[in-house]
Write a structure and sequence with these properties.
duf1285 protein fold, six-stranded mixed β-sheet, duf1285 like fold, 3 helices
Length: 182
């Protein structure tokens, strides 16, 4: 890690603070924290769900979950935050990957690559972005953080969808309707 002047800082302090802040109860209350910006961390989250630190994948799931628990989005930027510092990171597409979905009745519950579960609905919408001819499906996880829905899960959603007005494929979950397009 480096501070805003490019000076190197050991990662141990930030990691230890993140561990204390996150505990074992899931995401930390990052929305309550507004620490000073301390520079950039050489950390990238790739569209396939891999977290790359200084060119190497982070292979310990516990470490990835720890970092994810202190992840915050501000505008188009992503940061790892603790009560005392904020470090910028790169997110290529979305910070999480939805790797499965339970589709039952009026509830579609996604599981992310980090084991988080989120049920689509008014607070967790499903949306489709177009990039060229390819649809890019997402579900909102928390506080401005989305999960890209992987291909196999998206195909399952398409199979479960029903044709709606105007010919769009529609999904329903927790009283909300989501268009998958045509």
């Amino acid at each position: 890690m480096s501070d805003s002047g490019g000076n190197s800082k050991p990662a141990g302090g930030s990691i230890a603070a993140a561990a204390r802040a996150a505990g074992t109860r899931g995401p930390a209350p990052v929305h309550l924290w507004n620490p000073p910006y301390c520079g950039e961390m050489d950390l990238e989250i790739r569209p396939d769900g891999r977290w790359i630190h200084e060119g190497s994948p982070i292979t310990r799931p516990e470490m990835v979950r720890l970092f994810a628990s202190v992840l915050k989005r501000e505008g188009d930027r992503y940061f790892l935050v603790t009560p005392v510092e904020k470090l910028g990171i790169r997110v290529v597409d979305a910070p999480f990957l939805a790797t499965d979905a339970d589709i039952a009745g009026d509830a579609i519950t996604f599981t992310t690559n980090l084991g988080e579960r989120v049920t689509a609905g008014p607070d967790h919408p499903i949306r489709i972005e177009r990039r060229g001819d390819e649809p890019r499906p997402y579900v909102h996880v928390r506080a401005g953080l989305d999960a890209l829905i992987d291909r196999k899960t998206f195909y399952r959603l398409v199979e479960a969808a029903a044709e709606g007005p105007g010919g769009d494929l529609m999904l329903h979950s927790q009283g909300a309707a989501f268009s998958l397009g045509r």
